[in-house]
Amino acid sequence: MLLQKLQALGTAASWDSCGGVKQKSFRKAGIPLEYSSFVHDCASTSEKCRLMKVLQSNKCIHDCKYCVNSTSKGQKEELEPKEVAESFSLLQRKGFVEGLFLSSAVTKDADSTAERMIESARILRQEMHFHGYIHLKVLPGMAKESIFEMAKYADRLSLNIEAPSAQHFSELGSTKDYYNDLEKRLKWIDEARHRGARISFTTQFILGAAEESDLDVLSKMDSLYGETSLWRSYFSAFSPVKGTALEEKKPENEAREHRLYQSDWLLRIYGFELKELRLALNEQNRLSLHEDPKVAIAVNSPDKFPLDPNSAKKEELLRVPGIGPKALEKIEIARSGGKQFKEFMDLKKCGVIIRRAAPFLQLERERQARIAEFG
Ligand code: SF4
After folding, report:
1. In sequence order, what are the residues at sequence separation of 6 or more whose Cβ sits closer than 8 angstroms to the Cβ of residue 283?
2. Fewer CB within 10 A of the end CB, N or C, for the chain?
3. Ligand 1 pocket mutation pick from 9, 54, 67, 170 by most atoms within 8 angstroms of CB
4. What is the pLDDT of residues 308-328, one digit of tens each?
5. Is 64 in the pocket of ligand 1 (CB under 6 A)?
6. Which ligand 1 atom is at minimum distance from the Cα of 68?
7. Rounded CA separation 5/54 (Å)
8. With a 6 A CB cut-off, is 202 part of the ligand 1 pocket?
């Protein structure tokens, strides 16, 4: 009975942020395959770990057009806080999971649902003395105090913004308010951090359900990174679910997720500005599904290349395809030791991917491939 509940509530949680079931690793770890709906290999924590990932409940008062929990379809279940904590503790003792990802549909109202999630986490922390990773989902419309309470027990809080603007969001449902239920709560998560909560916080966009462009998504991400301490964004390509209002809508190409993850990386890690990312967009303000946005930006910036790696500034080199932060660090160490790069092999030793970087670099002894030859 409990297993069936966990399977139903694990399946209902599987579309959210991290996740992926690797049956091979399950077999290796001796995890029964019937646990695969609620045990996930997860690469989104700061350290990779395996999580128990479930919803506290899958009965929802909201009418999100893409979500099966908004319908009467499927098995409706709810876990008691004690059931969450005890199931997790059992899986953890068996060595099947290292952390918990707990989300929920909104059963009666946001705060009473959140109370049950908080209680699950509290039992784990205070009664079972679990000190590992807990990720809790902030629910749309939750009170500020409930968010602060969640932050006491969690390592990460997240709240899915779903769409890049109120206008796009209105296409996805009628019961949630973009500004009040989502944006305001994102700011409260940020406030919890500023008050000393040791949490990271993340959000997620659904791609393709509201006809948003990549520029819409990138602009929203950029403003969230600028205005809050949001750690990172996740993307979920829309896929129609039978029985929902959008069941007839075309699924989004999953390659779009990948290109937006690459762009997110450029914004957060490489320090690109939104205006540079615009160079990778086509007339419909979409990224190419077939080309790395960093390459597209470099190809569309002929005045910035080729660069001499002996004299170029750090931030210039970071804009060369095939040079990432680790390679840049090695180039910097070599340069500060007086190294002169004369051939591509010298750069390869620093971790530069020459086949990608060569058209954008100028070295004394190497013939310079022209950007036009690149491809
Ligand atoms: S709030 Fe919307 S997306 Fe979340 S569970 Fe309810 S119906 Fe689904």
Report:
1. none
2. N
3. 67
4. 999 999 999 999 999 999 999
5. yes
6. 8
7. 10
8. no
